[in-house]
Structure prediction request, 185 residues.
Amino acid sequence: MGAARDWRPRSVSEVLSKEFSFAAVEITGEPRRKHPLGRLAIEAVRRKTMTPEQEAGLFAADRVDHSHGWILPRLEEGKAVVSERNIHSSLVYQGLVGGLGIDRVAHMNSAALVPDLCIWVDCDPEVALKRIKSGSLRALTEKGRILRDDGAAAAYQSRLHLAAVGRTGDAHSLRYGSRHRACSE
Prediction:
């Protein structure tokens, strides 16, 4: 929450391009600001006209469409895909902050691809609050309250970590499974 967005995917993309033999490395992000489904999700949050579950449904619809219509074809071509945000964001924003629960949000996103690797950027709360107050979409939600309360922030991190760690203790596998691995084998 509140971490700088634009440098992360580029940095990861540069490392993948230089160090690995992918056909190409493509960068994407969610919600998709140039796609109707992504714009619907963004506008729902801005306008505050929908319930948290309806908003979560719009983010999930964008994610599923993005997964199968844009990401999977590129993976099948041997490309690496670096995405700014994915299921982990919804687990935090709609599941924890929005109060829907991690299991409910994970179920809503169960048809989407799950990343093979998630890089979590833990931002200093004061830096994050400054960015949130700058007028981004995040400022419209309760994230500022969470960041100001050290106990709440730690509790959210702990709950998200428990939700994201697989039964084998693999910190980059969601317990809901990796759809990409099932599709590519």
About this structure: DSSP finds nine helices and two strands in the chain. Confidence is low (pLDDT under 50) at residues 166-185. Residues 28 and 70 are 9 Å apart (CA to CA). The first strand starts at residue 25 and ends at 29.
